[in-house]
Amino acid sequence: MGAILVVAAIFGGAALESNGASDVLSAFVINMPVGPATLDPAEECGFTDMTITEAVYARLTQYGSKPGPNGTTQVDPGHIVPYLARSWDITKGGLVYTFHLRSGVKFPSGKPVDANAVRYSFERSIKMAGCGGYFIYDGIYKPPLIRSIEALDPTTVRITLNQADANVLQDWAQPAASIVDASLVNAHGGVQKGKVNTWMSGHVAGVGPYTLQSYEANKRAVLVATPGFFKQPKSRKVIVNFISSDPTLLLQARNGSADVTLGLSKQSAHSLATNSNLKLIANNTSSAEQIGLPHDKPPFGNATFREALTYAVPYEQILQKVAFGYGTLYYGAYPPAMPEFRASLEKARAFDLSKAEALVAQSGVQTPVDVTMDIQAGNSIDEQVATIVQGIWQQLGVHVTIDKLSPSDYINKLEQHKSQSYIRLDGPGVIEAGYYLGYDLKCGIGFNLSAICIKKADALLAKGRNTFVKAKRQQIWNEINTLWKADSPKIPVYGDKYVSVLNTRVKHYFYSHEVDFTTWSR
Fold first, then answer.
1. Which pLDDT does position 156 carry in this prediction?
2. Which helix (H) or strand (E) segment is 477 a member of?
3. Residue 203, by phi and psi: left (phi above 0), alpha (psi -120 to 50) or beta?
4. What pTM was computed for the model?
5. What is the pLDDT of residue 367?
6. What is the Cβ-side half-sphere exposure of residue 423, based on CA atoms within 13 angstroms?
7. Which parts of the chain register pLDDT below 50?
8. What pLDDT score does 24 carry?
9. Are 97 and 89 in contact (CB under 8 A)?
10. How far apart are CA 222 and CA 403, in angstroms?
11. Edge-to-edge strand order for the sheet containing 96-101?
12. Per 3-state DSSP, what percentage of the chain is helix, strand, and coil (rounded to 5)?
């Protein structure tokens, strides 16, 4: 009895499996702070939503990998490889994609994972009109990116586009493009236009490297390897604990309860740097801590005034004292983890208060001026950044009031474009410039929270999306980068580094922004 209690304490209660203590000790344990809001690939929006989906569904394509820090591997967003599709052909100038599927793959129901299943899954996400449809369409709606989806035979599916888009193979590697079992979905609510399927929110209707053995929302997920699946995971069983308390995550990382701990605050992760039983892995991400300066809110409609503020941020101080060094300084359109990032074009902007003062005077904006800066309550990094710039901008005659909002109020205010300025950690779900700029730069898009509008950049963006030669495409992204910097549309404080805490017993670790743990093992 005592031994069982010890195991339950060590593993945060994850031991509630029929095989007892030995079963838990053999499982690979992952602790993270936030569970998915939904398990339905058609409705998932944020990275945390995708943590389970990545492991229990298959897609046509998947991201490749490349070497990461300290002997690990990491996602390679510039390299897309086969998954359910063995191969594909691109014809008619990039308008037609013909996928050749693996044969013999079946759902747990016994139904085949075939061309009809692919067609059903894509059309389902599109009809439901959630985030999944946005991913599949690459954010292109006028006209809709996809003209038709045809099942030519059980192992051949043809997708015809209305316009060429060089990024669709990456879009269809997203969990949003997961292949679902139509028989199971139709037995539990089916597909209704623009409506959420509540059963799918808490259940899995697909097949992948893992099968979801049990699931308690915001508490725990237990996954076991799927027998006979063509992509076998390295760990036979995985327990994912969702622990919202940062001190508890920290404690369980220290005492060896978890193999991998994700989502620790940077301060807590930094406190483990000298722990000989742990390894800290810091990966560049496509997200950035940024200060939004919405152009439709005075005084930020003035480009020179915006430029002035970019020189009034002590970037190095914030990186070291607030982010504990877990970030990369840069200034430009693309965070450092994105394939389109070029260090020579996105050199970090210097802190230069004298230059900021001169630019404020040159801008013609009459100071003092009052500015409200929205942050999410409880986000210590955002609050520290806001407090630092508040003190410095005061010297320029910019009086900042920090408004701490609940998560729901914060998101609602941003999405309704009511924030005068804001701070947030943000980045693209698809790590590619065309997708990212499609909502972060394009004129008149509701997702464009800073209301950036550079018409020449819009024209280049459309051209870039239709350009398949990588070198020519990169030239276009570089041109947009130059226009972006000249406009000073927002302030990237630093490119974020995601810190994972690994117990030294972990032998294989792969970093992916979507948390793909199918290759993790000890």
1. 98
2. helix 470-487
3. beta
4. 0.89
5. 96
6. 29
7. 1-22
8. 53
9. yes
10. 39
11. 85-91, 96-101, 156-161, 146-153
12. 30, 25, 45
